[in-house]
Amino acid sequence: MNITQEARDAISKFKLPQEVGFGQVLAPVMASCDYENGKWGDLEIIPYGPIKLYPTAKVFHYAQEIFEGMKAYKADGNGPFLFRPLENFHRFNFSAKRMAIPEISEEVFMGAVNTIVSLCSDFIPEEAGSSLYIRPFIFATEENLGIKPSQKFKFMVVASPSGTYYSAGAMSVLIQREMVRAFPGGTGAAKTGGNYAGSLLSNVEAAKKGYMNSLWLDAKEHTYIEELSGMNFFAVYGNELVTPPVSDTILDGITRKSLIDLAELSGIKVSVRKININELLEDIEQKRCTEAFACGTAAIITPIEYFGDDSGQKYSFEKAPGEMSTQLREMLLDIQEGRRSGPENWVIKID
Ligand code: COI
């Protein structure tokens, strides 16, 4: 790996602003590695900045692209810590396979992530819920318009010192009963940009009606809850946590699976089952369902304040965040930020 002198200069000049937001302030360095002639080349660490591409680079036309979201945490002078980074590595290659992108080795992926975290260690905000948000991605760079898998790719890692994703605390969510995010046999379980692009219009329409996000239902019956695009879904029934099973239409969230494990370890009953939206709304009205939340690397746990339906009807919780959401969020963050020990190998210290 080559860390350029320009990258070292960029680090020494960088000043972390007081207010960072989420994904707005970019770390001064990035990792880059090219795939050509059937193999990945050498990793370089260079200053963060624009890159040169042909207008015919296939990513612009056929969206051959994948990404990951990870965080490095520092708190009370400890860290930086990565949370289950190999889960991200494995999911990255799962997404690569689905999008006909050549897989990358653990050495290149983790080498890039660890080096960026280590070089940016002084720029990781330490307030609870803040972190260095890390975005590894690969995109097709071959410069022609043939509809064929690209023969050239670029792997990059950029990072952003960030605060919480949803600063508002709790979310209002509009149930999307017409458009769908994913369908069986499609790309819904891969972390690829097209899934997110396809969800934007729904979010724009939700925002016009005063909601912060839309809730996606299954493509066949428009009845079963899938996810929130960028976040998985949980409902709370008293002391029971309920979440839909992951499938080829739902992203296999690392926060989701960690929360299932933590809940079970804490004696909370977890049911992984399909959730019928109409039954859920009835259960909220009857106060059988007492809380709901979305979760993800960026979102951590974001409580849902109320759901809205096309008719304009709202289904609200008495309290958001509720007790279960608060307890699980604290438990997860305490582990991620190194205040409490979690299951083996969940938290990796970077030197
Ligand atoms: C993440 O949680 O890391 C995501 O990828 C969600 C989003 C910011 C796209």
Features:
351 residues, alpha+beta, D-amino Acid Aminotransferase, Chain A, domain 1, D-amino Acid Aminotransferase, Chain A, domain 2, ten-stranded mixed sheet, eight-stranded mixed sheet, 8 helices, 26% helix, binds 2-OXO-4-methylpentanoic acid
Produce the secondary structure layout.
Blueprint: E1 2-3, H1 5-13, E2 29-36, E3 39-40, E4 44-47, H2 58-62, E5 65-67, E6 70-75, E7 78-83, H3 85-98, H4 106-119, E8 131-140, E9 153-162, E10 171-176, H5 193-208, E11 213-216, E12 232-237, E13 240-243, H6 254-265, E14 269-272, H7 277-285, E15 291-296, E16 300-308, E17 314-316, H8 323-336, E18 347-349
The protein binds 2-OXO-4-methylpentanoic acid.
What features would you describe in this structure?
The protein has 2 domains: 2-162, D-amino Acid Aminotransferase, Chain A, domain 1; 171-336, Alpha-Beta Barrel (D-amino Acid Aminotransferase, Chain A, domain 2). The protein is 26% helix and 27% strand. The chain is built from 8 helices and 18 strands. The strands form 2 sheets. Strands 1, 2, 3, 4, 5, 6, 7, 8, 9 and 18 form a 10-stranded mixed sheet that branches. Strands 10, 11, 12, 13, 14, 15, 16 and 17 form an 8-stranded mixed sheet that branches. The chain starts with a strand and ends with a strand. Residues 69, 196, 230, 296-298 line the site of 2-OXO-4-methylpentanoic acid (COI).
Summed up, what is this model?
The protein has 351 residues and is of the alpha+beta class.
CATH topology of the largest domain: D-amino Acid Aminotransferase, Chain A, domain 2
Which overall shape is indicated by the principal axes computed on the Cα atoms?
globular
Would you identify the regions where 5 or more consecutive residues have pLDDT less than 50? none
Report the total helices: 8
SSE pattern, N- to C-terminal: EHEEEHEEEHHEEEHEEEHEHEEEHE
Specify the CATH architecture of the largest domain: Alpha-Beta Barrel
CATH level 1 class label of the largest domain: Alpha Beta
**What's the number of extended β-strand segments?**
18
Question: What is the CATH homologous superfamily assignment of the largest domain?
Answer: D-amino Acid Aminotransferase, subunit A, domain 2
Q: What's the number of domains?
A: 2
